[in-house]
Design a protein that fits this description.
Rossmann fold; 4-stranded parallel β-sheet; 15 helices
Amino acid sequence: MPGEEKLSYHEAIERASSSLYRFPLLPVRGIPLMNHIANSWDTIWAFRPDPSDILIATYPKAGTTWTQEIVDLLLHNGDADACKRAPTPARSPFLEIVSPPPIPSGIDLMKNMDPPRIIKTHLPFQLLPPAFWENKCKTIYVARNAKDNIVSYYHFDCMNKTQPEPGPWEGYISKFMRGELAWGSWYDHVKGYWKEREKRNILYLFYEDMKENPRREVERIMKYLDLSLSDEVISRIVELTSFEIMKENPMANYSCIPTHVFDNSVSPFMRKGQVGDWRNHFTPEQSKMFAEDYDKKMKDVNIPFRSLI
């Protein structure tokens, strides 16, 4: 509108941060979501993507930002400067996030973007707006070993002052196993997309595979997106999306979020990015309890996760 002040993503969050707080969880069809998402559910459910839009779906802290950066670089032929045009959440909107004004919601951001848009979501399969499947949008799902995922999520919930208070580590494990964290059960989440991957043409990736051989997985994503980039460009994308480079990239490391919202003195947004860090957090008793529960919940599927031992 004429005369309307245009704010950068950082400025918008800075201005609105006084109204941000640890949002309580409300159930949406049995899935606990932050109340501002639950209160805007009809708008989210009715969202209609363009058929060319690309969806990146994950359980929280499973390699989302990493995959967003890879896809953006693939779409821009490895042009690092083009991918520094704005912070990750402005380049790749978060579908279900609805925050207090003047922070733009994910859906509002997309209204001002030309397709194909890179859209991020943590919604489980059953809560994803059906128009994504009606329009046959390409969907990339990334799954991470449950133990590493919970550790990363715990540290994130400690530093993210908009997520529910995580409480002590011992209790957090129990909440994770019961599916009581924001976005619900990890088990149901990874199984939901796995069971639908062939029918819906979902590219199902594993965080551990991406760490083991990033070039192979970047090429898999490239082919899935029907792109053809040179070996030189692929090498550049692998380098630019390494954990070390991304951690220092202000357009990818979430330093756009004010420190009183994302408290980096508690934990950085990009913390370690390692496989097996769970060994530094689980006691032998916790590990045994978790593994027994895991076996019960995952016995109906054969998803090839790396060993939890």
